[in-house]
Amino acid sequence: MYNQPKPTKDIGVIGLKISWSPEASDELLRRYGDDAVEWRLVYDTEGCGCAVNGVPALWAVTGPEPDDSAADSTPFKLWHDPRQAVFFDDELRVSFNSEKMSFSLASDGQIYTSRLVLADRR
């Protein structure tokens, strides 16, 4: 009988890259404190009625969930559920609009939101 290799958990970077504007980094630290250095990108479907109807959100966290993967991200650590990666392009940008006091999440192909939901889940 054929011996299949056992699956291994990938705890490294799996293709998602996040860049943060200096304004976004500064504002996150101002709002959440200097210890807010780990974030989780989620496609939040709570209250949206369907698993494909959701909104992107960033949660301040103390570490990854058991199945999370790390994104290529500086200056913050960023975690995400690899099953939700289908909802995002591989390269994303987080920026901050000081006039509207809001964060945005975008890629070269689209703007996901100009009012990114933030939550402190630490």
UniProtKB/TrEMBL annotation:
What Pfam families does its record include? Fe-S_biosyn
Query: Core domain spans which residues?
Result: 17-118
Positions of transmembrane segments: none
Q: Which InterPro entries match?
A: ATAP_core_dom (IPR000361), HesB-like_dom_sf (IPR035903)
Q: Which organism is it from?
A: Cohnella faecalis
Its protein name is Iron-sulfur cluster biosynthesis family protein
